[in-house]
Amino acid sequence: MTHTYQLTGMSCNGCKANAEAALNNLVEVQTAIANLEKKEVVIEMATHVSIEKLQDTLVNAGLHYTITDKACHQHSNIAEQQHNKKPLQDGNGIFYCPMQCEGEKTYDKAVGCPVCGMDLVEQPRLQQSVQYTCPMHPEIIEGGPGDCQVCGMDLVPKEPAENEENKIYQGLLKKMKIAVLFTLPVFIIAMADIIPGKPLSTVF
What is the pTM of this model? Predict the structure, then answer.
């Protein structure tokens, strides 16, 4: 059986030779060939050797190299790249007043409407590309269908984010509840004179 591992820490042909010599000393290893440019080592084994034993072999030989499973190394690199990516924006950077106080006038900043003071709403993008992800590795995100770079599974369409209109609705609903909360006591006090018995007259 042949396995390819990521091998970091080599800087010259002497390092390469030392790594090959140390790994070839294992009884289970038939051949170990290191590649300095690709920073990897191809090991042909008679029986499987754990990656922990391979690492211990290098350490015991006085070599400060790190051997890792290539798939795991690739997985971590992809996860880091995805983490460093800027989040995709849902809007196009153009804002408008939902009450259309000034007709179809738009603004380039998310400030309050100059007429009614209501929060401006960002226009959604006209075209939203479908993103694809791996069912087993959700951190893998691609712009089109294909195969997962880690496990090789077919990528599937990613669940769409919350609809922009629903976000706007939830924001307006929250504001309405707050307004009702503060308006209801004022309404009760204003209508106190027509309540039979005028119960609030004793309080004020």
Answer: 0.36
